[in-house]
Structure formats: C-alpha cells, structure tokens
From TrEMBL:
Residues of the FAM65 N-terminal domain: 1-295
Chain's gene name: Ripor3
Lineage, highest ranks first: Eukaryota, Metazoa, Chordata, Craniata, Vertebrata
Family: Belongs to the RIPOR family.
Name recorded for this polypeptide: RIPR3 protein
InterPro entries: FAM65_N (IPR031780), RIPOR3 (IPR026136)
Top-level taxon in the UniProt lineage: Eukaryota
Species of the source: Eulacestoma nigropectus (wattled ploughbill)
Amino acid sequence: RSCSFTGFSTVQSRKLAKSLSRSSVRSRMSLKPPKAYNSLQKGALIWDPKPLQVKKIFEALKKGLNEYLEAHQAELDYLSGRHKDTKRNSRLAFYYDLDKQIRSVERYIRKLEFHISKVGEELYEAYCIQCRLRDGATNMKQAFSLSPSTKASRESLVELYKNVQECTEDMCFIEGALEVHLGEFHVKMKGLVGFARLCPGDQYEVFVRLGRQKWRLKGKIETDDSQTWDEEEKIFIPNLHEKFEIKVTELRGLATILVGVVTCDSINFFTTKPQAIIVDITELGTIKLRLEVLW
C-alpha cells in the first residue's frame, strides 16, 4: 500500500542543515498527494506541531514497513528456491508463472525500500532539522528577551520571532506530507460482547471517528444470539494527531441511551498482522466491542 511521492533531495537536505538562512521548506518540496486524500488535506493544517507524537508514529511506521519488507524478502527467497528446483523438472508454463511471481515480489520490495528511504531519510530527517532550528531560535528569543532592551536586541527579537514562525509552518507542512504516506487502516466490525447485558431484540449504534473521518453503523441482537450489522468494514486514513474515538448507544424506540465512549491509539496498528481490538465500552467492562484492524 505504499504511495510514490517526491520529497527533499539529499542535496537540499544538506543545504538546509548547513544554513539557517534558507527558503521555506514548502518551496523545496514537490508533493502531489493522491486524490483520495485531498478532502483530508483541505483546511486540515494544524499550526501546532507535536514532535513527540510524530516520533512515535514514525518509529511505529518504520517498524511496520520493515516487517513488510522482511515478509516479502522471505517470500522471495522461497520462490527463488522453488525456481531453481523446478527449472529442469517442470512444465515450461509453470516455470514462467513462477518467474512472473518472483519479478512481482522483487518490484514490491523495491517499492518498500524506496518508501522507507523517502519517509525516514528525507521527510523525517527534514522534520527533525526544522525542530532543532525552531528550538534554537526559541532559546535565543528567550535570551534576548531577558537582556536589556536596545534597538539591536529588538531587531533580533523580530527576526527570531519570524524564524520560529517559519520553522513551525515548515514542521506542520512536513507533518501533512508524512501523513499522506501512512497507508490505510481496514477496520472490520466483529460485534459486541456483553454476556447477560445483550438480549435478543436489542439494537445498538456504533460510531467510530478518526479526525474528520466517520463510520456509523447499526446492529441488532438476533434470537439465536448472533448479531447483524448494516456494515462490516470501513477504511480509515491514519492521522498523526487524532486517536480513534468509539461511541456506543443503545436504541430503544425513538430514544437513545449512551452506553459509553472510549478512545483508542493507533500506534500499535502499524504491523503486518491483523490486530484484534477488544475495548471496554462501559466502565465495568460489562459490554465490550470487538474490532479487527488490518494495515
């Protein structure tokens, strides 16, 4: 699920690291996010960068991408072994089909390696540079504000304030660029668990939100204790700053009764294996919600 993109070139990164007097990062980056993400980008720029959160997401993302790389490398090794064994003892059509699979896996591995290098060595590296520049300008601004007020110090404060604003804007822009390349979360509804709390005929509404993305679905407890839901799967685009918010209400005629609201962090979802989630909707855990997330 990697997306091709362009970011900082290595030459531009070195220039940025060497000098404080640089043009805006946005003028150095040429980013064309996929159309599927355009609605999420409009007006979504938050002028409050969160370096610690971005670091956590980046480490989880890098770990997940390396897991995908290792899995496909293992698949390539297996197919290559079969390719050698069947070269002389198999039908020609089977041999060419195996060769086609190997080429496909090799192309995907190259895409993953490119994705890892772009996200880690360019986007995140540029983000860290901007973070250090902003911290340095902030410290200098505080030092100048404590010194005696002179014309030179006032001019320096104005310039430092401008530098802090530019670094902040650039960090937010890079966060938006990084967010586009986080992939997708496929969330599957697995039903409610409530033991004696769930009775045949009960109707529930589950509302899942991640930033501006929403998923509302309704379900009913059948006479055989099975559950039917009007939707079973939803695709969410990961968000750097937002957590999953899950709200469950019970429908009784025209009235609705709030069962509970919980939040769930998405950092642990960046992995190759489907993640089963069981969250306590009520404080005592008498009603739980089961979901499955595949990245």
